[in-house]
Amino acid sequence: MDYQLDLQQANGFHLLDWFASGAEEVAAHKKFLNDINVFPVADGDTGTNLSTTLRAMVEKPARAQSFAGMLQGISKSGLESARGNSGIIFASFVNGIALECQPAEAVDVREFSSIAYRAVKHLYEAVDHPVEGTLMSVIRDWASFLESNKDRFTGFRELFSSAYQSAFVSLEKTKEQLQVLKKHNVVDSGAAGFVRFLQGINLTFSRQRSVEMKEDTQSLPVITGEEETAFRYCVEALVDISDYHDRSHAALTEKIKHELIHLGDSLIVNHLDGRLKVHIHTNNPELVMERLAQYGPFIEQKADDMALQNRLRSLTPGGIGLLTDSIADIPDDYKLAHVISTLPMGVMIDGSAYLDKFTIQLEQLFPRMGQKEGYPTSSQPEPGRIQAMLSALTEQFDSLIVLSVSDRLSGTYQALVKAASVIAPDKKITLIDTKLNSGAQGLLVRAAAEMIAEGQAHEQIVKRIEEMIPRTKIYVCLNTLVYAVRGGRVPDTIGKVGIKLGLRPIMTLDSSGNGAAFGVAFSQAGLTKKILGLVQKTKQRKGIQAYSIVHGGNLALAREYAEKITRITGTEPSFITEISSAVALHAGPGTVAVCLVEGAA
Q1: pLDDT tens-digit profile of 201-233?
Q2: Distance (Å, rounded) from C-alpha 273 to C-alpha 61?
Q3: Which residues contact residue 73 at a Cβ distance below 8 angstroms, ignoring those fewer than 6 apart?
Q4: CA 412 from chain center: how many Å?
C-alpha cells in the first residue's frame, strides 16, 4: 500500500496492512519466541500461538474500507481463532479496541490513541489475576504512551515509531519484574511477540528497522521442573452464546470467571457478537466444558497437554516419536512418562464436538447416553488437528511411528495417510493400521514405547509391531446389547431379540479389524466363565506375552478379572484402565474387556 510521508487518517485498508505486516514479523521470529517461552509455563508454544492468532486476524475477515468495519472483522476473527495465553490476551486487547471504537470510516492519531488507551480496561477485565512483567504490562505501557503523547504527533508514522521505543523499554523491564524471567535472563515471550508486531507496523512506513531486538539464541533457558505449572492442560473453548438470555459484557464475563476460577489459573474470558472465548489452565478440561455447556453449543474446543509439551521440549531433537489416537486405551501416566502423543477422536453431543479423553470423560458421557433422543456419536479427528500434530512431531523427531485404530472402525487411518503426504512427504513416517482398538491397541502402543526406550531401530520396531497385530486379541464383555445397538455396532433387529432374551454378548475384532460376535451368556458369571476358559486355553496352547484389562466405569469387575487371570498366567496385567468415550458409545457402562497378546510361534 502506498503511504504518504506521514499518514494522518487511517482507514480499514491501512489497519489491515498494519496487522498483515505485524503478523509477518511475528511469524518470522516464531521459533525464537517459542524458545524463550518460560511463563506462565515452559511449553514452548507462545510464538506459534501468537502467530496463528495473527494469521487468522489477517486472513479470515473480509476487506473493508471503513476503519471500524475492518476492526470489527479483525477482532471477531482473532477472538474466534486465538490460541494460547498470549494469543487470547492479544485478541482480548483488540476486542477492547473494537468495543471502544465508534463507527468511523477513518481515524486520526488522537482518536486512535484514545481508543487504544480505553481498550486496556477491557483487557484487564477479561484476565483473572493479571501478572505484571508480561504481555499485558507492555500493552498497557504502549497504550499509555499513545494517550500521553497523542498531541505531539499529527501522523501515524512518528507516533508508532516513538511508541515502539516505549514498548521496547517496557519489554526489557520484564526481565526484572518476574523471577522466572530474571533467572533465565530473558524477556517475556508474549510481550516480545507484541513488540515484534509493533515493529511490523513500523515496516509499513519504512523498510528500515528502527531498533533491533537482541536475540541471543546461545543463552536460551534450560527447561526445569521449577517452571512446570500446577495445572496440566491449556484449555480453550469457543461457545455460541447468541441465544443466551443475558449477554451484557461485564456481567457475563464476571459470572463465567466466578464459575471457572476454582478449576485452574490463567483464566481469560471474553466475548463479542454472540461468541464467547474462554482460556484456562486446568487439570479437569471436562469440568470446564461441563460448566460452559449451559451457555450454548461449542463451536470449537482445544486442550493442549502442557506437561507433554514440556517433556517433548526437554528432549534432545531427533529419535523416534510415537503417536496414537484416543481409542487406544492405555494409562495416561504411562503415556506421559514415555512421551506418547494422543490424537483425540471427536464425541458429538447435541451438536458440539468434544475431545475424547480430554474435554469429555465417562462421567460426563454416560448420563448423555441414557437420554432418549440425540444419542452421542463419534467422529474422526479433523484434518487441521491431524496436520498440526504431525507437523509439530516431525519437527521434533527424526522419524515417527503412528498406531491407528482399525481402519474398518474409523476413517482415522486414511485421514492420517492423507495428512502425512501433505505435511511431511519427505519425513520418515510409518502409519500402521493396527486392525484393533481399545486395550488391544493400547498393548501395541505400549510395546512400541518399550522398544523405543530400548533404543531399537525404526524398521525393527515397525516389523515387530506388525508381527504382533495378528496375535493381539480383544474380548469385550457387554452388560447389555442396548448401547451396541444404539451406537450402530449391532443391527437393530438382532439387537432387539438379544435384549429381550437378556443376552450378554462377548464382542471381538476379526483379522481384518471388523467387529464380530465371539460368544454369549445370560449372566455375568457366565461371561466370566467363558473369558477365563478362553484365557486358560490360550495360555496352554500359545502362551500369553502380555495382557490388559479395560472397563467402562466398572473397576471392581476389572480387578476381579485381573486377580483371576493373574492366577492363570502367573503375571499381572500390563495395565488396567478406563475405556475411551469413543469406545464407550458402543460398549456402554459396566463393560469390561480382556485384551491379550498371544505368545510368538
Answers
A1: 999 987 544 344 545 444 444 444 445 568 999
A2: 14
A3: 60, 61, 62, 64
A4: 17
Q: Looking up cell 506375552, which residue turns up?
A: 545
Output helix, strand, coil percentages for the chain, rounded to the nearest 5: 50, 20, 30
Position 75 scores a pLDDT of 95
Q: How far apart are CA 28 and CA 196, in angstroms?
A: 9
Q: What is the edge-to-edge ordering of all strands in the sheet holding 298-305?
A: 264-272, 275-282, 233-240, 298-305
593 near 474, Cβ under 8 Å?
Answer: yes
Q: What is the pLDDT of residues 457-489, one digit of tens each?
A: 999 999 999 999 999 999 999 887 777 777 666
Looking at 399-523, list the stretches that DSSP marks H as alpha helix, in order from N- to C-terminal side. 412-423, 438-454, 458-468, 482-486, 492-501
Pairing mode, strands 340-343 and 320-325: parallel
Which SS3 state, helix, strand or coil, does residue 20 take? helix
In whole angstroms, what is the distance from residue 593 CA to residue 438 CA?
9
pLDDT of res. 482? 78
Reported as half-sphere exposure (CB side, CA atoms, 13 A), residue 295 has a value of 26
Residue 145: φ, ψ to 5°: -65, -45
Residue 55 near residue 38 (C-beta atoms within 8 A): no
The residue type of 182 is: K
Angle 376-281-308 from CA coordinates, rounded to 5°: 85
Reported as a single tens digit per residue, the pLDDT across 85-109 is: 899 999 999 999 999 999 999 999 9
Give the orientation angle of helix 46-59 with respect to helix 67-81, to 10 degrees. Answer: 140
Element (H, E) at 281: strand 275-282
Around 140, how many Cα atoms within 13 Å sit in the side-chain half-sphere? 14
Distance CA 75, CA 456 (A): 50
Residues 6+ apart with CB under 8 A from 12: 63, 64, 65, 66, 67, 68, 69, 70, 71
Q: Which amino acid is at 553?
A: G
pLDDT at 430: 96
- Sign of torsion over alpha carbons 539, 542, 543, 547: negative
Cross-strand bridge partners of residue 438: 328
Contacts of 593 by beta carbon, 8 Å cutoff, 6+ apart: 438, 439, 474, 475, 476, 477, 549, 550, 551, 579, 587
C-alpha cell at 17: 496492512
